[in-house]
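Question: Send over one sample?
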Amino acid sequence: MFMFRRRRTALAKRLWKARVRRDNETRCAEKTSATAQPATTASVAHPSPVESDERQFRNALFKRLDDRQLETLLRAVDTGGVDATECVAVRPFLFSDPAVICCRLWRWPDLRTVEQLKNTPVCQTAKQPDMVCCNPYHWSKRCEIERPPPPYSRFVKEKLKPEDRAPSECSWDSNDDELRGSFSTDGDEKPNEQEWCKVAYWELSQRVGRLFPVDTKFVNVFWNVPLGTGLSLAALTQHHFPPTQSPPESVLRNRTKIGQGLALSREEDGVWAYNLSDWPMFVNSPTLDDPDSKSYLVFRVPSGHCLNIFTGNPHGDRIRYSNGLRVGPVDPNAVRISFAKGWGPKYSRQEITSCPTWIEVLLDPCR
């Protein structure tokens, strides 16, 4: 019994040490360390009211978690969410929003309310209204959108050769109503009614691998995560470049930033993208555009944040006109997401095809 108690105490201490310190706590700790006095004369530091509440919550939470749950929570925190598949479910106690305090302790010290949070698709506790998941990596912070979002405001009309365009882009005569190559770059493929989207991976202006059909509620898109299931972009690149030809240096550098990538989830209010990587991602979607603008908007989604990227109600079938030609996207359900690198007038990259690594999400029309 004593051995098990020591084990629980060790797990609790490691979890408490792993918490994310606020700026004022860090400065206070550094100041205390720099001016430390001998133990006989040192003054006792009193915790702040916020830290006292967190200690009280910690004690109450750890008493309610069994050893397996403590290990799961510590593993998720230690790996930064890489190994965070299991829930840490508890019933609400003392504190009205235990998930908020867990996320504040181990992820976002500035978090205020539960309205800022959203369960990730992998969290099974969300289906249990009487339970709360205390795994901080089963939560994502909602991205607060500004219009336009500075400094990533608007980007100019893309000037691409037809062969370099993404699957959702093409141009044709104004009298031609046929969508050429829309929805798939493989002309003989037919959409599967069970599929709600297809994912295309791009490196600069080159498509890498085949389209990846998605017929599950959500899908993870990542580089090469040992415990990951879903679309591995690393696997797509294995047969892309010939042995004698290496990818550009910018592509090689950016591949290392994809990491856990993102999760795409089809939900009741639309399609959500969850940024699981350590770097921001940049999103362009027809349902996030300003209907009064002739250009498109690019939104920055920080690490650990989520965004509703498609509501299923775009601002009409928006098509730009240029010299008598109709210029894409001809598919109003196409969403483009760049990993770590933004594009637009505030960047040297004016077009998304200048971004080293990015994906295009081709969505079926909502039925």
The CA atoms of residues 158 and 362 lie 19 Å apart. The chain has two domains: 1-18+49-142, 197-363.
